[in-house]
């Protein structure tokens, strides 16, 4: 029985890594879950030049037995095998239990999941199994972010002033992967210098929660449901409200509808973008161009109606607001890429 608390996770992953054949990473910080799963996979594979395989629900849709086969077969050319699996509708505690209880694992299993209560079947199974471990991954605190800043900037030979560090910590969200990405971007911006200053932070680093919301909206409007849900989880981890995200999505779709209507009337994309108020940020222009090609005005009108209904439902049943918002994001992404009509060639 191994339950690794959030503050113990770092030492748990120190080289050469734990010997457990099955490890679950779970928590509110999707980026940290992914980062730690990747670190453990690399540690295990490095022991004997092993291979790493990724499996999720979509893989099992076409080959339901693949997860069990991969976990119970030895690599043809020797070495270890690591299977990184994402918990979902097919990768469940019920599906994994026979493999853990039966002791037939020929590979290391690493499962990534969202926030799980102590009573959740997946978490309980990993915590109680003699050959498994469950690792909690929760939002970074300020001291964790300061450590991440130092760790990320060190290979670039960059220091950072105290004012800049304080400002950067304030702008980082609760998602480790997003934070690391922003710090890496900052390091590239300051390449060739010795120290990062507060003005550099102002110039290049956006607010993490705003970035997560923007990515959520663009993924949904761009037809990428999986990414929309992942970015939505990151926005929630950064403390954003589901109802705010619905409102922001509604505004985004309204703007997209106005642009699409003007394009249908014969205006050029450049002219329409130039006339938008408030102005379209240059970083958003390409994303809007892609989205305009995906959507028609009638479909945008339909999803705007559904968005209004979701906003009302979230207000009336706040206990379900997270699920309502996630369902809406998935529906919008699906509407962005409608199935071709039967008989179409």
From TrEMBL:
InterPro entries: DNA_pol3_clamp-load_cplx_C, DNA_polIII_delta, P-loop_NTPase
Top-level taxonomy: Bacteria, Pseudomonadati, Pseudomonadota, Alphaproteobacteria, Hyphomicrobiales
EC numbers, comma separated: 2.7.7.7
GO cellular component, one term: DNA polymerase III complex
Catalytic activity: DNA(n) + a 2'-deoxyribonucleoside 5'-triphosphate = DNA(n+1) + diphosphate
Uppermost EC category: transferase
NCBIfam families in UniProt: holA (TIGR01128)
GO MF terms, alphabetically ordered: DNA binding; DNA-directed DNA polymerase activity
The family this protein is said to belong to: Belongs to the DNA polymerase HolA subunit family.
Transmembrane region(s): none
Keyword match rRNA-binding: no
Single Gene Ontology BP annotation: DNA-templated DNA replication
Alphabetical UniProt keywords: DNA replication, DNA-directed DNA polymerase, Nucleotidyltransferase, Transferase
UniProt protein name: DNA-directed DNA polymerase
């Amino acid at each position: 029985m191994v339950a690794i608390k959030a503050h113990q996770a770092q030492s748990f992953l120190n080289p050469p890594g734990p010997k457990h054949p099955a490890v679950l990473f779970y928590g509110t910080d999707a980026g940290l879950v992914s980062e730690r799963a990747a670190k453990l996979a690399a540690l295990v594979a490095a022991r004997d030049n092993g291979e790493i395989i990724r499996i999720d629900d979509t893989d099992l849709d076409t080959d339901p037995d693949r997860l069990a086969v991969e976990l119970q077969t030895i690599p043809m050319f020797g070495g270890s095998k690591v299977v990184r699996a994402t918990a979902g509708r097919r990768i469940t505690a019920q599906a994994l239990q026979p493999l853990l209880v039966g002791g037939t694992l020929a590979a290391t299993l690493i499962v990534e999941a969202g926030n799980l209560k102590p009573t959740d079947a997946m978490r309980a199974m990993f915590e109680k199994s003699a050959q498994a471990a469950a690792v909690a991954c929760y939002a970074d605190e300020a001291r964790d972010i300061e450590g991440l800043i130092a760790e990320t900037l060190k290979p670039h030979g960059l220091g950072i002033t105290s004012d800049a560090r304080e400002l950067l910590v304030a702008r980082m969200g609760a998602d480790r992967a997003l934070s690391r990405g922003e710090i890496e971007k900052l390091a590239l911006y300051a390449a060739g210098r010795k120290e990062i200053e507060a003005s550099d932070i102002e110039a290049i680093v956006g607010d993490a929660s705003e970035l997560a919301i923007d990515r959520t909206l663009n993924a949904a409007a761009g037809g990428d449901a999986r990414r929309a849900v992942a970015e939505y989880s990151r926005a929630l981890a950064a403390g954003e409200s589901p109802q705010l995200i619905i409102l922001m999505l509604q505004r985004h779709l309204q703007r997209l509808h106005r642009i699409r209507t003007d394009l249908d009337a014969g205006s050029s994309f450049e002219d329409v973008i130039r006339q938008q108020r408030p102005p379209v940020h240059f970083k958003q222009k390409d994303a809007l161009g892609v989205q305009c090609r995906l959507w028609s005005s009638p479909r945008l009108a339909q999803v705007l109606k559904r968005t209004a209904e979701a906003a009302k439902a979230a207000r009336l049943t706040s206990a379900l607001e997270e699920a309502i918002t996630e369902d809406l994001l998935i529906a919008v992404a699906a509407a962005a890429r409608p199935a071709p009509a039967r008989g179409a060639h």
